[in-house]
Each structure stands twice: as structure tokens, then as C-alpha cells.
């Protein structure tokens, strides 16, 4: 059975997700606290087999290299942000008083469509707007989707960092996320989970 664990990590409480089946796991957005992530992985007796990035903003990538090196696994990122891991201006860390955050480049590029990593199957949807390479991971049969900073409970992602586009973001939400079934659970990059139905009805940006 597929399981998902939400871990708020780092100074900005960025949600990292551990998605596992048959003790094999992928880590989505390893945030900025590898020790807490690793503790959870060990407590659950999991074998991490990959790192998936919803996008490459600094608060989502702080522990990428530490996680990659500890588990010896590849990192997946959309090609539109290929250079962002290595560039503190593109990933946004140079705009905040947290020091420049960088990482080595991703090992593989994410493309829209069906994908399987070990026993874990999902769909990649390109959901740009918050950033050019933002993606969402749809686990259709389990009725949950990990959306990064595209959509939040009663909110949407910011668009004032490099590559942000408000019109494109709203289009991504309406065409790629609101087209999912109403009972689809939405797991965002910050804050609590929600559902497609709740956000269609309650999100002030779509009233």
C-alpha cells in the first residue's frame, strides 16, 4: 500500500514528503533539515530510491546534496530549471538573509506523463507559474497530488521571484489541478493538505 508522510522542514517550514510502497521510498523536496528527514526514514525502515523536486526554489532544495549523497540516489527536476540548483539568484536564496543555497545539478529531467520509480507509479504534470519548471505529482489511484508551491489551502504560490507569472500560475491550477477529481487530496509545499473540491469552492483567488 502506498503511504505518504508530510515533514515540515527548515526555517520556512517547507513540506517534504516521503512516499513509500513495500519499504521503497521517494523523497519529494528534501527541504533544509536532513537529520529530521533521515530520522523518519530510519524509523520507518525505508530504502530511499530517488529524490523528486517539484521545483528548485531554495527552501525546497536545501538538503538535496546531503540527501542524495547519504542514500546514493538520483535527483529528478524539470528541464526548465536545470541551472537553478547551482544558481542562488535563480533559486531565490540570494534575495533572502539566509546565505546562498546551491546544489549540484539534477541527474534526470522530469517530463509530463506517466512515470515509475521502483514500485512507485505516478503522473507528472507541468504546472508552471510559481516558477517555470514547477511540476505536480499525481497519484491517481491513491487520490492525492503533491503540488509544491503551485496551490495552497486557500492560497496560491507567489509569483514575484524570477520566472514567476501570475496568469500562467492560475492557468496551471485551473487546467492541470482543478481538472482532477473533486476528492483528490492536495499536498502543498507549505501548510496543511486540502482537496480540489475545497479549493474550487473556498479559494479566494478563484471565487
Describe this structure in words.
It is a single chain. The protein has 207 residues and is of the alpha/beta class. It has one domain (3-206): Metallo-beta-lactamase, Chain A (4-Layer Sandwich), CATH 3.60.15. It is built from five helices and 14 strands. It has helices spanning 34-44, 58-61, 64-71, 166-177, 196-202, and strands spanning 3-9, 14-21, 24-28, 47-52, 75-78, 108-110, 113-117, 120-126, 135-139, 144-148, 151-152, 155-156, 185-188, 194-195. A hairpin with a 2-residue loop joins strand 7 (113-117) and strand 8 (120-126). The longest helix has 12 residues, at 166-177. The protein is globular and about 45 Å long. It starts with a strand and ends in a 5-residue tail after the last helix. 46% of the residues are buried.
Features:
single chain, alpha/beta, six-stranded mixed beta sheet, 5 helices, 14 strands
Write the layout of secondary structure elements.
Layout (H helix, E strand, L loop, with lengths): L2 E7 L4 E8 L2 E5 L5 H11 L2 E6 L5 H4 L2 H8 L3 E4 L29 E3 L2 E5 L2 E7 L8 E5 L4 E5 L2 E2 L2 E2 L9 H12 L7 E4 L5 E2 H7 L5
Parallel strand pairs: 3-4, 4-5, 5-6, 10-13
Antiparallel strand pairs: 1-2, 2-3, 7-8, 8-9, 9-10, 11-12, 13-14
Amino acid at each position: 500500500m502506498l503511504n505518504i508522510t508530510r515533514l515540515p522542514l527548515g526555517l520556512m517550514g517547507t513540506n517534504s514528503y516521503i512516499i513509500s510502497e513495500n519499504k521503497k521510498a521517494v523523497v519529494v523536496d528534501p527541504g533544509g533539515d536532513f537529520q529530521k528527514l533521515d530520522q523518519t526514514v530510519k524509523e520507518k525502515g525505508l530504502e530511499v530510491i530517488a529524490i523528486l523536486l517539484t521545483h528548485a526554489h531554495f527552501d525546497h532544495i536545501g538538503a538535496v546534496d546531503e540527501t542524495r549523497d547519504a542514500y546514493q540516489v538520483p535527483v529528478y527536476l524539470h528541464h526548465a530549471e536545470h541551472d537553478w540548483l547551482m544558481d542562488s539568484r535563480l533559486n531565490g536564496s540570494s534575495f533572502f538573509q539566509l546565505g546562498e543555497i546551491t546544489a549540484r545539478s539534477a541527474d534526470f529531467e522530469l517530463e509530463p506523463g506517466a512515470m515509475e520509480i521502483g514500485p512507485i507509479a505516478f503522473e507528472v504534470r507541468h504546472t508552471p507559474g510559481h516558477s517555470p519548471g514547477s511540476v505536480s505529482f499525481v497519484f491517481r489511484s491513491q487520490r492525492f497530488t503533491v503540488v509544491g508551491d503551485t496551490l495552497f489551502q486557500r492560497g496560491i504560490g507567489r509569483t514575484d521571484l524570477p520566472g514567476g507569472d501570475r496568469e500562467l500560475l492560475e492557468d496551471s491550477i485551473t487546467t492541470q489541478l482543478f481538472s482532477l477529481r473533486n476528492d483528490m487530496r492536495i499536498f502543498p509545499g507549505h501548510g496543511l493538505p486540502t482537496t480540489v473540491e475545497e479549493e474550487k469552492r473556498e479559494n479566494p483567488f478563484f471565487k
